[in-house]
Amino acid sequence: MPVIRPLSNNQNEMNAVASLITSHFADGWSYDVPVNDESAGTFVRVAEQNDDLVGVMALTIYASRERLRDAMHLIDTVEPIPHESQYGFIHAGYVDPERTGEGIGSSLIERLHEIGESQGLNTFIADAWFHGGSDSPARLLTTHGYDVAHTHSIAGHTEGPCPKCGSTCVCEAALTIRSVSDE
Q1: Are strands 172-179 and 147-153 parallel, antiparallel or unpaired?
Q2: What SS3 state is found at 158?
Q3: What is the 3-state secondary structure (H, E, C) of 73-135?
Q4: What is the pLDDT of residues 28-42, one digit of tens each?
Q5: Residues of the chain with pLDDT under 50
Q6: H or E element: which one contains 66?
């Protein structure tokens, strides 16, 4: 199993995480690496095996549905989300494409759930890109107690074949919710 630890602010490590994340995207696509700032409510964890970074995932705590909505990338509705005093937003979840299926994503999300629950969170949210690739977060999220509350098609999001699905794109934006009280 990998070692799960906080992301450091070391530039070399930040570059390694950025490279891991962008390995999942088509040419020209990018993603900002979240900064581990626990005093501001953002907990970024990396998975490391044999001194190699093999995964990353973040949890950010928001005190309102509106701030949560503004943080989401794929979904613009908060209607299915229950009213709570704070929310845990799971994001930036990526595993080395050659290591998919080894339990790295599960180790990361379980650690973030532990952190969130220690911070008093009852509700975790993820807006996720469900796709036809082997690294689609659909299985990870549902295995870890997330219910799919909303989806809409984003098929055809690129020119030509989908980089994740191949020629027949099945991509969906999904809003998933995990309520600790339901467990």
Answers
A1: antiparallel
A2: coil
A3: CCCCCCCCCCCCCCEEEEEEEEECHHHCCCCHHHHHHHHHHHHHHHCCCCEEEEEEEECCCCC
A4: 555 677 889 999 999
A5: none
A6: helix 65-71
CA atoms 63, 66, 70, 73: torsion sign: positive
CA distance 156 to 111: 34
Q: Quick one: pLDDT at residue 41?
A: 97
The long-range contacts involving 10-13, CB below 8 angstroms and separated by at least 24 positions, are: 13/46, 13/53
Single-letter amino acid, residue 159: E
d(CA 4, CA 55): 9
Strand arrangement, sheet containing 3-6: 3-6, 42-49, 52-62, 87-95, 123-130, 172-179, 147-153
Neighbours of 137 (CB within 10 A): 22
Tokens linked to 15: 């570059």
Which residue in 29, 32, 45 sits closest to 71, CA to CA?
32
Tell me what pLDDT residue 93 has.
85
Q: Tokens representing 6? A: 């906080």
- Rounded (5°) CA angle 144-150-154: 105
